[in-house]
Design goal:
The complex is a heterodimer of chains A (about 240) and B (about 230).
Chain A (H helix, E strand, L loop, with lengths): L11 H23 L1 H20 L4 H33 L2 H6 L6 H30 L6 H25 L5 H28 L4 H30 L2
Helix pairs in contact in A: 1-5, 2-3, 2-5, 3-5, 3-6, 3-7, 5-6, 6-7, 6-8, 7-8
Chain B lengths: L1 E10 L2 E11 L4 E5 L6 H8 L7 E6 L2 E3 L3 H5 L2 E4 L11 H11 L5 H11 L15 H13 L5 E5 L7 H15 L4 E6 L2 H7 L2 E6 L2 E7 L8 H10 L1
Parallel strand pairs in B: 3-8, 3-9, 6-7, 7-8
Antiparallel strand pairs in B: 1-2, 1-4, 4-5, 9-10
Helix pairs in contact in B: 3-4, 4-5, 5-6
The chains are: A mainly alpha (about 240), B alpha/beta (about 230).
Chain lengths: ~240, ~230
Amino acid sequence: MAEAHPFDQARPATSYLKAIGAIVWKDLTAEWRSRELLSAMLVFALLVILVFNFALELDIETRRTVTSGVLWVTFAFAGTIGLNRSLAIEKDRDCLDGLLLAPVDRSAIYFGKALSNLAFMLLVEAIVLPIYSLLYDTNLFNLGLIGTILLGSIGYIAVGTLLASMAVQARTRDILLPILLFPVVIPVLVAAVKASSGFLQGSPASAITPWINLLVAYDIIFIAVAFMVFDFVVEE
Amino acid sequence: MIEVRRLVKRFGSKAVLKGLDFEVREGEFVALIGPNGAGKTTFLRILASLARPTLGEVRIAGYRLPFQAAAVRRNLGFVSHQPLLYGDLNAEENLRFFGRMYDLAGLEKRIEAVLNTVGLLNRRRDPVRTYSRGMQQRLAIGRAILHDPSVLFFDEPHTGLDQEACDMLDQVLREVTGRGRTVVMTSHDLARVEDLAARFDVLSQGVIAASAAKSDLGGSNLLDFYRRALAG
């Protein structure tokens, strides 16, 4: 029997999943030590809702109508800070090269980074929601709203991780990401605001479903696009 | 082991590599020397599958880059002047992370053996950001040999190290390269590569301008050979 070539030892499926898991573990462990990314996102998010609280001196009824808009503006801006920082950590010491040298399909790097970014964003949202409830005297514990936040966050992070991987190669990465990201993510933000508002105001399902469908379609499309193009985005 | 034919790399309209031919036999240690801007780093990044060639053919162990890059990467180690390590993780965690990326079996024993080789066993639980530059570079070598690759690329590994750290790095380099591995190292420091490598290729203006085995240098030293190659 012919001896196996030393270069032919790949176990693609398990390697792929293990690589994704390794990146998520690495990001969470590093963040647990430094707390740089989460603290920046959280402080910024809390400042935004505080500023809105003072800027919009509204009655209870009007507060309910602006809630979804204020929440998504807060999540989007805080998310941009998180995305920028998450990819800058990889670029600063050329650690991205270390990831690119791994013998796995490079989309595994995308999914690993996207999952850890999503975990950070969901954690910030979980902290912001109850604080917002207190400040604005609005009940946000609504399953529909939480589902919408999950779908919106997935879409935002799916496209954000891809564009942040692109922007991080540029010297002007801090300003480049929002310029690239916000035009592309507008469908997610509009659909998320409309669906969230619908759930908070008790709108009929027929008014909310099209926005939820749009969020699901956007999530699927951008995850698929990122899977196909990530390799070209990160390679010179 | 490594075959490169008519390699061209352009950045926009600027050609950095201009039809470069290069070959390395299995187990050979080749030093790639040349002036700043000659394209040494670009060339090594193409060999390591971190950059795509514009034209030409690159084969490592018969596998063609960039099309069979994953197969090549499994048996390739790369050390650059940046350590490619995470400062907030300790040495053990960094190696564990990269070991998982390579899906290595018996990882914990392998990590201990590698830390022992690079002399960092007693500092394994310290965050990498507390390491000196020399220690970070030794750990970078540990990262590169963790999966026991048969091909190693070093891109100016001595950059930014003091004399003592360079000597320690050389000790580690001799240990990890003296095991039948194929090695390509770029460097500005001719005295160091003269001691380490068995063959010297001069990269100038995007092509290999001259090549000589250590035994062929005869009485002349590497600096003379290098100057003659650059003078054309």
